[in-house]
Design a protein that fits this description.
Rossmann fold, 5 strands, 49% helix, alpha/beta
Amino acid sequence: MALYADENFPLRVVEELRRLGHDVLTAFEDGRANQSITDHQLLQRATETGRAILTLNRLDFKRLHIQVPDHAGIIICTEDPDRLGQAQRIAESVAATGELGGQLIRVIVAAEKRRTRIETITDSQPAATAVQLSTFLHNQRG
């Protein structure tokens, strides 16, 4: 599958997706990084090249999916320290979806990981738990 990773997408995930057989072009490789290019322009570029865009920027690309429904696909992901697992989940989601044109795919951290993270916060820092837990859950909404 042809994919386009925005400039903030983890390189390790890109490398693993390539190893899994996906054709991934990064915004950096395409000469589009560090140029203040808008999300809309990046989506246009990905569509021009026939690639679904990979991004961690969930809110803006959900909006763009509604505003610009004629695109090559948008894959929004949550931040995940398990880069290899994230690449595998992306590959599985892409395979299950088939044709990506006009599709919005969400790849999120597994529920078991969220529970583990919440338990870790609760056990390790009881004084700051409420604030951290609230921030963590807010950041996980996708």
